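Model it.
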Amino acid sequence: RRHGLERIASENFPLLGGTIGLFRIVDRRPVETVRRELAADGSVRSVQFNFRYFLQQQKAATEGDAAQYAVAQLRLPQAHQFVRGMNVPIAVIDSGVDARHPELANSVADNFDALGSKEGPHVHGTGVAGAIVAHAKLMGSAPKARLLAIRAFGVGANGAESTSYVILKAMDYAAEHGAQIINMSFAGPKDPLLE
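Modeled.
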């Protein structure tokens, strides 16, 4: 309040060992002015923008299992002779994952919606999950892994989108639930908080 901001959210993030607040400027002050004022406040550790992120567009398959072009390059059949990701918890921070898809059967150990949305599964999140744990007709890189399907991207004007704050909530959830690997297939600006 003393900085003339509206608090949208405030949450403790064990992953960072602190509380993150999300605020909106309610007057016409320039963003950079508000950022400098907050940064000068002794009770504030750091200030940054809540950046927007977008899922990468998928290219349509042209024939057969063209989506599996990487199997030979990654030498997955040879790798699977030694390791298949048995019980490794892997978080997929993406759009919604269709846990009922035959390629993902019995692989999704947990679902979390960092947006708190009611959206259903999405082709991007399901495709990324399949690239990791597919084990029916297709071949994933770690078909025996346990997937933590975390929705952080929702429908936006230019496709599925998210923000730094929501992605941080997803990362925090993944860490708190034992993810050893976190997959994030999206694009956006360099973000010190997410790094």
